[in-house]
């Protein structure tokens, strides 16, 4: 166990969490928790926060040591603050997160979403209970319409979720069968029970619908 901890620490010190691909999801989660605990959360004044424009094309955003740390809902978490364009017409923003791990032991970064006005006051919020699952990955689409035209920022951050739940996952196995005419591969599928745990790190994808060509 000691050697695993040392290898993890060396990898993080040299390469950073995002590059330590040889670590298990559990090791990367522990390293992310240590990184979050050591960081000073942003921000006493929201005007000091690092803001990124809402991407018009599908964009992946890493929630790891390259992300900002926020103190939200009583917890330190990775997050990103996006600036919404001036409202012109109704559009949607979809935030999805990719499940990590192996067939029966999975981890997922469950994003929480907060919409804020130009004074950084929260107008709407969505947590992990508002996520839906598509292809085994959680996602949420938020619509900005005339009733929400005053919303100018979207904060996406981790939930600090540590509870686990069980879900059915399809698994396909392939077995070679040797015959006098060559090798035939037999594929078989089955559902297995997988344990899914919340993760402090991950990668989200942000995509929009209805904005392409409308923002200069």
Question: Which characteristics define this entry?
Answer:
single chain; 216 residues; mainly beta; 6-stranded mixed sheet; 5-stranded antiparallel sheet; 2 helices; 15 strands; 12% helix; globular; disordered N terminus
Summary of the model, kept short:
The chain has helices at residues 2-14, 25-38; strands spanning 51-53, 59-63, 68-72, 75-83, 91-97, 100-101, 105-108, 112-117, 122-126, 132-134, 137-144, 151-157, 164-179, 182-198, 202-209.
Structural notes for this entry:
With 216 residues, the chain is mainly beta. The chain is 12% helix and 49% strand. The chain has helices spanning 2-14, 25-38, and strands spanning 51-53, 59-63, 68-72, 75-83, 91-97, 100-101, 105-108, 112-117, 122-126, 132-134, 137-144, 151-157, 164-179, 182-198, 202-209. Strands 1, 3, 4, 8, 9 and 12 form a six-stranded mixed β-sheet that branches. Strands 2-15-5-11-10 form a five-stranded antiparallel β-sheet, with no helix packed on it. A four-stranded mixed β-sheet has the order 6-7-14-13, with no helix packed on it. The longest helix is centred in the first third of the chain and has 14 residues, at 25-38. The chain starts with a helix and ends in a 7-residue tail after the last strand. The model is unreliable at 1-10 (pLDDT under 50).
Give the SSE map.
Elements: H1 2-14, H2 25-38, E1 51-53, E2 59-63, E3 68-72, E4 75-83, E5 91-97, E6 100-101, E7 105-108, E8 112-117, E9 122-126, E10 132-134, E11 137-144, E12 151-157, E13 164-179, E14 182-198, E15 202-209
Parallel strand pairs: 1-4, 7-14
Antiparallel strand pairs: 2-15, 3-4, 4-12, 5-11, 5-15, 6-7, 8-9, 8-12, 10-11, 13-14
